Input
Amino acid sequence: MSNAAKKINLNLKVWRQKNAEDKGYFDVYKAEGIDQDASFLEMLDVVNEGLSKQGKDPIAFDHDCREGICGMCGAVVNGHAHGPKAKTTLCQLHMRTFSNGQTLVIEPFRSRALPVQKDLIVDRSAFDRVIASGGFISVRTGSVQDANNIPVEKKSADLAFDAASCIGCAACVAACPNASAMLFVSAKVSHLALLPQGQPERSRRVLGMVEQMDTEGFGNCSNEYQCEAACPKGISVQNIARMNRDYAHARFTSED
Amino acid sequence: MLKKYLSSSIGKKQIVALTGLAMVLFLLAHLAGNLLIFKGADAYNAYAAALKEFGALLWVARLGLIAMFFIHFVFIFLLVKQNRQARGVQYSEPLHANTRSLSTKLMPVSGTILLAYIITHLMDFTFTHSNIANATVCGDYLGLYGLVVNHFSNPFGSLWYVIAMFAVGFHLTHAVQSVAQTFGWNNSKYTPFIKKTSVVVGIGIAAGFAAVPIYVFFLACGTSSCTLG
Output
């Protein structure tokens, strides 16, 4: 372990927007003496500390766990959702990824369905409404069922788990040329469609969630797979294919 | 049910995929006919005459093709319109093209070239009938074959055709694999094969069609057009 991490200086071009109604603009800041072992959000903390001391409004950004598992953080850095490192959330991106003197353009995730609330914070309520339209199973509450009571094939369990690892951060929407939410919705549809517990409501779920997705004003998938490349959890576009066939099947066979 | 399907994003995409696939099948049949030009004027003209023999049935096929084309176009128009609206504010820094290949990026361009090309193609070969003035090669009247040869002897005619075939190739390289994905056929076992097939179909159709003007322009016309026929 190195005892003294290298410090770097960066030029930031950050999107500032007072509220949802404000038009917004880019402002330029200097981030000086940034520890390369710091995370991207810690770098913003340092910049914000400076701004606060000057009596200026700090840059607003969302965050919660800072461990890459909650899906709260996220911004587009130099054209990459969650920054240039693959399968990494913004909070887990470290400043050693960048070089001294580099300019970073930091923008919020852009989508009409996920409007900017302030600076880098977007309102992801549209995702909640998609989940509420079918992304659940209705089960009896009460005592816990016996373990292994319902057999699940190992392969299906793995695929379901992979799909369920979606943290709903919206990087897929941000990276999609059409601002489509297909990767998110398909991950949520898939992880229940792959398990026995998800079968009773399978048709209703996919029909409801796709309809809500369309209502929210997300774009349409054009099979360019930018979402998969940007996803911090590596969710596969095979989920989108599964949702496509589930949707057509449900639309033409179910009575829902 | 159908109304909901057609207004959903997945339904619209599947209609685009289905009509696109139908047009690919048409192109394969069209290509097989075109390649008869290498067998000579008689085989080529006989094929054209045999098609005409179908009469009313030929018109059923033509109307079907026109319908496929219009449905494909209208649904893409609707999808693209929604896509444009979905972003809202544009990024100042262009999104990094992690996985966008040239063919996917150029889909709107290749599609527009094809739309323009189809109009000129119909004017040149479908609505223009061969006559003594346009289908005579070195004093011999060669019917449709002569019309094609004379058209491609013109460098602009050949060049525009070849450009359009590049557009077809690019379009299909993305499109064929897209059909599989849109209908939900994507798994680790078959997808690599589907992707290769898509590239082969794209290049194959483009090269097959482009071979005709290249043959006429460089080989047949370069020396003496009187070697034909």
Q: What stands out?
A: The interface with chain A takes residues 1, 4-5, 7-14, 79, 82-83, 85-100, 104, 107, 174, 177-178, 180-188 of chain B (CB under 8 Å). Strands of chain B lie at 136-137, 140-141. Residues 6 and 12 of chain B are 5 Å apart (CA to CA).
